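Q: Given only this backbone (219 positions), what sequence would you predict?
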């Protein structure tokens, strides 16, 4: 996504929002949420000057915080309503969860690295996102005790829709996730649960870190 109309280095918050609009993000609630969440708080200190550039950035445990455009795009495609309960798989820095917290009633976010989950929880608490719960576990299994969820977002790429997540999606629920091979092209797919089964719509091409089974072993 090198055609992004962001400059290099320090990019102001005004340009950040303008660029999201220019790339087609139009839902006012999503734009407000993107405006309200300080991305610089979710990236490592060395990456702060790039915090408002439209690029993924490294975080701990070899993972990445997604590109702002993709965060906004996936949030928009979820078609969130304020009363919704959302499940996120792949907490990472907690940035996407913070954006979701402003668009939905409740967010449950699962991360397989305890270090990332602990750091994300601290940031979210410091920012007052008190409707987000961060759990350590294998997100491929979802969290059956809390199901069903009105919306599910997966922020790591799988080859197929994890069956447990499809089971935990409410009727008429929407799941947005990147699907595709690790080495090849992945697409954001919107899955809608209908009476006739799951309907899938393929959206934009993306690159995500892989969705891996199990919890991570950490030293
Ligand atoms: N949403 C994040 C970006 C996360 S990158 C943000 O806004 O910063 C993807 C994350 O998914 C990584 O942190 C990775 O550890 C996590 N992940 C991968 N497979 C997982 C699984 N099975 N369960 C939970 N988390 C997983």
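A: Predicted residues:
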């Amino acid at each position: 996504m090198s055609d992004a109309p962001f400059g290099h280095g320090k990019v102001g918050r005004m340009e950040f929002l303008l660029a999201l609009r220019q790339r087609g993000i139009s839902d006012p609630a999503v734009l407000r949420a993107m405006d309200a969440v300080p991305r610089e708080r979710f990236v490592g200190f060395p990456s702060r000057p790039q915090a408002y550039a439209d690029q993924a950035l490294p975080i701990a445990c070899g993972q990445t915080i997604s590109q702002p455009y993709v965060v906004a795009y996936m949030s928009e495609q979820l078609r969130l309503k304020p009363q919704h309960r959302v499940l996120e798989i792949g907490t990472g820095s907690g940035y996407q969860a913070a954006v979701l917290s402003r668009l939905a009633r409740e967010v449950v976010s699962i991360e397989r690295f305890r270090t990332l989950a602990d750091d994300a929880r601290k940031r979210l608490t410091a920012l007052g996102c008190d409707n987000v719960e961060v759990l350590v576990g294998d997100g491929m299994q979802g969290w059956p005790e809390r199901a069903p969820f009105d919306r599910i977002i997966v922020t790591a790429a799988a080859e197929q829709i994890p069956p447990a997540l499809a089971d935990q999606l409410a009727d008429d629920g929407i799941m947005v996730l990147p699907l595709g091979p690790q080495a090849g092209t992945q697409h954001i797919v919107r899955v809608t649960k209908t009476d006739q089964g799951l309907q899938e719509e393929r959206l934009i091409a993306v690159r995500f870190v892989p969705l891996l089974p199990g919890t991570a072993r950490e030293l």
